[in-house]
Amino acid sequence: MTEQQHDADRVESRAHLLPEEAAVGSDDPEAQAEAILAESDLREADRNAAPDTVLEHRTSDQTVNPVEPPD
Known about the structure:
By secondary structure, the protein is an all-alpha fold. It has helices spanning about 5-15, 20-25, 30-45, 60-65.
């Protein structure tokens, strides 16, 4: 199977709307599938590509405003 055929098969398979997607509809399920798969491939290649995947390492005094000034 060529890479193009594999990609076409993935898009065709993903273009079948999930129940949640079918409930709201889609103007172009194939274009939607291509976009979803492209983003998925990007996230798979770069684990930090997804929003909210980078953890910040801070201490509590860097994240919380004190209620009272220190004595």
